[in-house]
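Quick one: Response regulator receiver protein from Thioalkalivibrio nitratireducens, structure tokens please.
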Amino acid sequence: MTEPTIARRLERRLILMTRDPGMIRAVEALVEPPWQIVTTTDLDALGAWNELLLYRFLLLDLDEVEAFDPLDVIRILRMEYQINLPVFCFGGDEDIQDEMRLSRADRFFDREEMLARLPEFLRQYGW
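--- reply ---
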């Protein structure tokens, strides 16, 4: 296994798990270089667990139950990989949010609030 370089560790990258084209466009409009967005509906497509450590945070769409299971995503991150990557959830109903809380997702927003808070998260994780 190759070690990530210092430059790769310093990249400002976030994961956006959704297939909603409106949300993708809205997030892209708020994110400017040097930040990079990686949009996916498959956590495995991002690579092995150690590759996930190179991302600053994850935006997780709780309304995408047909594309992926949000509970599986958080369980893989927290239980299987034991990674404490910040997970900011948006959308979903109260039941899925409660299940995600029990599985240790970090924060919950409606779609508009997620977009309003995103600049704050970019500043906070821009170290």
